[in-house]
Structure of Signal recognition particle receptor FtsY:
Amino acid sequence: MSFFKKIFSSDKKDQNLSEEAKQTLDKGLEKSKSSFFSKLTKAVAGKSKVDDEVLDNLEEILVSSDVGVNTTLKIIERIEKRVAEDKYLGTDELNLILREEIAGLLSETNQENTTEFKVPKTGEPYVIMVVGVNGVGKTTTIGKLAAQYKKAGYNVVLGAADTFRAAAIDQLQIWADRVGVPIVKQQMGSDPASVAFDTLESAVKQNADIVIIDTAGRLHNKINLMNELSKVKRVMQKVVADAPHDVMLVLDGSTGQNAFEQAKQFTAATEVTSLAVTKLDGTAKGGVVIGISDQFQIPVRYIGVGEGIDDLQVFNKIEFVDSFFK
């Protein structure tokens, strides 16, 4: 079995998910795992080697698991290459091969291997601008993120720049109160850029470590969205020159292929630098994490695997693949 790539061995020392967090991850991916492996078991039933029919079935399984067509083709091509090189691959080895190739794909985009909530030191507040359509769990993700960063010892300030909906401002206020962090807000209909400016000014005065800015989640007009986000960026840079340091797109994992479309729209409207994929615990479409990360070449930074505050986890490619193939 010399052809097996030991891709996990060098990274194991950096993993530090607690047992409780591992259990949460396992539980959150349970629907995706059971759906995927029940299909895979049927696909290889009666087969002893990986042949064209098995690969065709595997391709169908990956696509139906919302891995995405392009990423699925990459995985199939990699397995075909291994079949050609090794002449004979048994179906009993398919799980390990899949695990290795999927981890390899994730490693190309997700270079870091950590489970800690941390940000680079910049000498100024580290600014995260959060984007995403309404309903994906954007504001909830911001609240949970604020809680995790505060627990890690950071001083956090929230900015309610989604001024299009009063509910968004109110919801973020509830999270700020719950977590115990300051929030900067204005009235509904206010200029989002003005809110962002005030937030950063306040954060600088408070010597804050991290600023998380919520933005409106409208996609009805990509040009308007592009202009609005560009303006928010320009105004923030009057206070913190390099802001935002991270533009995080929040996607609802349960929407499958619709999440791909949202990623396409937002990456066209602004420079997205990281992803947070939510609601993985309520869906069998966990494969979307693999596909979106690969297709858009943007690292997945956080995943939501439950409703509790602690159920937002730093995405760790090793832990994710270990859990998925456990």
